[in-house]
């Protein structure tokens, strides 16, 4: 089923919508999300503001669509890890490293996109909430798999364990936090993953 992010209007699959998202993405990269208005976007794309509103109810809705594409890329990398023929422990370790690596890449090479993701988290956009829910679901399934294989302890309630792991990821995946530890981010991800895995040992 095709997902339509919050604030979008009209048909889900529409070539013009994709063109608007692509053009807006480039405009945000040049000028930043917060400094851009819908009128600025319309002028840059060569469309009327009224026409943009046929597809998106606000600038935030356009930002949501772009943010969702970024999150889809992150989730694609994580899903590839989950499908790999390795233990649940190694999958969890690689997820920590993947989030840290992708977060650093975004900050260093696509700062404007990094700022959009930061806005999504700060303002609790639907795209950010949906990503957190999907990440939590993936981690929960890994925990269940690890418990079934005798790799992880079973005493702690699964919801509590899952929530604690998601919270432990904050320093390496939250845009407002990871930028303060860029030089040590990879090592930090490894150390936090090691600590989490030791706590999960039976």
Structure description:
The chain is an all-alpha fold and 202 residues long. The protein has 2 domains: 15-60, Homeodomain-like (Arc Repressor Mutant, subunit A); 65-200, Tetracycline Repressor, domain 2 (Orthogonal Bundle). It has helices at residues 15-31, 38-45, 49-52, 59-83, 88-109, 111-122, 126-148, 158-168, 170-173, 175-178, 185-200. Helix 4 (59-83) packs parallel to helix 7 (126-148) and helix 5 (88-109) runs antiparallel to helix 7 (126-148). Keywords: DNA-binding. This is TetR/AcrR family transcriptional regulator. Residues 14-74 form the HTH tetR-type domain.
How is the quaternary structure best described?
single chain
Tell me how many strands there are. 0
Question: What is the CATH class name of the largest domain?
Answer: Mainly Alpha
Proportion in β-strands: under 5%
What radius of gyration results from the CA coordinates? 19 Å
Helix content class: over 70%
Summarize the biggest pleated sheet.
Answer: none
Distance between the termini: 39 Å
Helix/strand/pairing category: mainly alpha
Ranges with pLDDT <50 over ≥5 residues? Answer: none
Architecture (CATH level 2) name of the largest domain: Orthogonal Bundle
Number of domains: 2
**CATH level-4 homologous superfamily of the largest domain:** Tetracycline Repressor, domain 2
Order of helices and strands: HHHHHHHHHHH
Task: Explain the layout of strands and helices.
Blueprint: H1 15-31, H2 38-45, H3 49-52, H4 59-83, H5 88-109, H6 111-122, H7 126-148, H8 158-168, H9 170-173, H10 175-178, H11 185-200
